[in-house]
Design brief:
Blueprint (H helix, E strand, L loop, with lengths): L1 H37 L5 H26 L5 H16 L2 H17 L7 E4 L2 E8 L3 E6 L4 E5 L1 H5 L4 E2 L6 E10 L4 H13 L10 H11 L9 H5 L4 E7 L3 E10 L5 H18 L6
Length: 281
């Protein structure tokens, strides 16, 4: 009797695992066919959405049928049928099922979507694909990163730079104590204001997006009062006999240009300080 139960448990578990892998294979084939058929006919966001929804439907229906037909799913009866050995054999499936559940949550909560720029573990990445079990990203360095969906549920918070309106950049500059403070502050502000990538310069595409999100009127960006809120700011953070510490705030709208914008900022500040005889500490 015990031996028969052992073989029943083993065959039931093996069949269930086989069915689950078959579900993955069928969903993969259908996903490939959908992408191949729709890629040249519709926008990427549409065919990726259709592909993801159909993949989820196939998995839900397939898993429901598998649990109903293979193990006649009932928590008490299933545990008794599978036994300890069956439970151990199913353990490798737990991370897979966790990642699939996380994929469902990502699809409904949508903390990010394809083409968004996010920060993951200190790296800024572009989201390329959100699949059933994993998400594929490309870092600004060109690395392809495959992250399990569970990581976005239990890992560190994900920063989405695309859905946010602006990113504040903070830089610190120290000038010698005998430098003319007002002139240094004016130079820094002017350097920021002439840079087309620093607010209050905003491309029309970004303005249109902000109007839709916040229902901003067309006159918002032309109002001096509102524009002043977006202007760069220079604060005196420390003062001593030898040096004056300045903290600069400015806002950008394209995170992919951050390093270039900061580099251009410093180059211009260095040149202007030399012209006006302002020395760094």
């Amino acid at each position: 009797m015990t031996e028969q139960l052992f073989y029943n448990s083993l065959s039931t578990t093996g069949l269930l695992i086989l069915v689950i892998f078959a579900i993955f294979f069928v969903s993969f084939i259908i996903n490939v066919l959908i992408v191949k058929f729709l890629r040249t006919r519709v926008e990427p966001s549409f065919y990726k959405f259709v592909s993801r929804i159909l993949t989820y439907i196939i998995f839900i229906v397939g898993l429901s049928v598998a649990l109903n037909k293979v193990v006649q799913f009932n928590f008490g009866a299933t545990l008794a049928t599978l036994g300890i050995l069956g439970g151990l054999l199913l353990l490798p499936l737990v991370p897979i099922l966790q990642n699939i559940a996380s994929g469902f949550i990502l699809s409904f909560e949508r903390p990010f979507k394809e083409e968004d720029y996010i920060e993951l573990s200190g790296k800024i990445c572009k989201v390329k694909e959100i699949n059933l079990r994993k998400t594929i990203l490309r870092s600004l360095n060109g690395e392809i990163i495959t992250a399990p969906n569970l990581m976005f549920m239990t890992g560190t918070p994900v920063v989405n730079y695309t859905t946010g309106e602006f990113i504040r950049i903070i830089q610190v500059i120290e000038i010698s104590g005998n430098s003319e403070l007002s002139k240094a502050k004016q130079i820094i502000e002017n350097v920021c204001l002439i840079n087309a990538d620093i607010l209050p310069h905003i491309p029309e595409k970004k303005k249109n997006m902000l109007r839709r999100i916040f229902e901003i009127s067309n006159g918002f960006f032309n109002s001096p009062k509102n524009i002043n809120k977006l202007k760069p700011r220079v604060f005196v953070k420390s003062v001593s006999k030898e040096k004056i510490g300045l903290e600069i705030w400015f806002w950008i709208w394209d995170i992919t240009k951050k390093e270039q914008i900061v580099s251009n900022f410093y180059e211009l500040v260095i040149n202007e300080f030399k012209k006006n005889e302002i020395n760094f500490a």
